[in-house]
Amino acid sequence: MGWIILLIVLGVVLFFAELVLLPGITIAAAGAFCCLVVAAAWTFVSYGVFTGFVVLAIILVILGVMMALFLRRRTWHNMSLHTEIKESIARPIEELVAVGALGIAHTRLAPMGNVLIEGKVYEAKTFGEFLDAKSHIEVIGYDNQALIVKGII
Asked: pTM above 0.85?
């Protein structure tokens, strides 16, 4: 009976790992299923039908209680993050840099890189033009949060 109890405990531990640590159908779920089925089958074969059904009922009750405890909302309430992000640091690039602004290439633009405009570094790209670092640039537009620039002489 000791091996059967050990298999049940191992199956419950693996089931716990599946519910809490490794969500999704993983090796822990397969291991838990195998351990619990072998424990129930072994009990039926070794100790008879009545004891087999008692052990099977105990296994099902334990699994049902675990699922009820771990899948309810209040269980995870104390472990979850409750803060909300109310501010954003990133402002639209259109508010930061105007079209026609002048600057220099901070890194090589091939065709993407960084530019320095009024002491701040921004991500920029060209329309296929390759510009070396320290080249003079002019902002001609925007693409998402990147500037579109062209080289000037």
From this structure: no
What's the CA gap between 149 and 136, in Å, rounded? 10
Q: Residue 6: in which H helix or E strand, if any?
A: helix 2-16
Q: Are 148 and 100 in contact (CB under 8 A)?
A: no
3-state DSSP helix/strand/coil % of the chain, to nearest 5: 45, 20, 30
Separation between Cα atoms, residue 138 and residue 22, nearest integer Å? 52
Residues 105 and 111: their CA atoms lie apart, in Å, by 11
Dump pLDDT digits (tens) for 49-105.
Answer: 999 999 999 999 999 998 888 777 777 777 677 788 776 667 788 888 999 999 999
CA angle 15, 5, 69 (to 5 degrees): 35
The DSSP 8-state label assigned to residue 18 in this structure reads I
Q: Rounded CA gap, 40 and 56, in Å?
A: 6
Q: Pairing between strand 112-117 and 102-105? A: antiparallel
Residue whose structure tokens are 């990133």:
90
DSSP string, 97-115: S-TT-EEEESS-BSSEEEE
